[in-house]
Amino acid sequence: xxxxxxxxxxxxxxxxxxxxxxxxxxxxxxxxxxxxxxxxxxxxxxxxxxxxxxxxxxxxxxxxxxxxxxxxxxxxxxxxxxxxxxxxxxxxx
Amino acid sequence: xxxxxxxxxxxxxxxxxxxxxxxxxxxxxxxxxxxxxxxxxxxxxxxxxxxxxxxxxxxxxxxxxxxxxxxxxxxxxxxxxxxxxxxxxxxxx
DNA sequence: GCTAATTTGTTCGTATGTATC
DNA sequence: CGATACATACGAACAAATTAG
Lengths: 93, 93
Prior knowledge:
Two copies of one chain form a homodimer.
Chain A: H1 16-19, H2 25-38, H3 51-58, H4 62-74, E1 78-81, E2 85-88
Chain A binds a DNA duplex through α1 and α4.
């Protein structure tokens, strides 16, 4: 699966999102995964990396990853199951 | 507005929700406020207490209060505006 | 079938940024 | 301007479901 290797330049740059009205970090993750799904790189049924892996890949906290996954779940793009993981949902209609 | 004086017996009882499959704390807040809105105790345009106040009233952390408010917002029951507060939304249709 | 490891779920606390009053 | 209020973000601990061995 596509893994987006984006990393912040410095870990100390903790609130870059605010400085110049940049997108929040969790929203970047949401957009990133959404794009991958819409582009077909991530297909229905595909398993996303674990939260632990995503925190490393994106360089942000588990809190924000969970937040992003929750939003994606609300939007029906993914399904998350305790103990299993998160999976790309099958589109409706 | 209706303020529900529920408090956990002891602050140390941090994960009672799991012990016997109780509803998560944030979900209790969601249900509580939802009930008040549906019962008409909270009317459209009414301002909810601040997050700080809600943490005291419910005896849970700001994290969980924010989480609950976010869910209520997603469901269209309330509207939250930075610097202003949360307000009961006007029902659609 | 049991156990350990993995993975998500819930919860707390705290710090800093931004908008509004 | 100062106080108030929400937004974003980090880290950590423990619970519960699932999977791996």
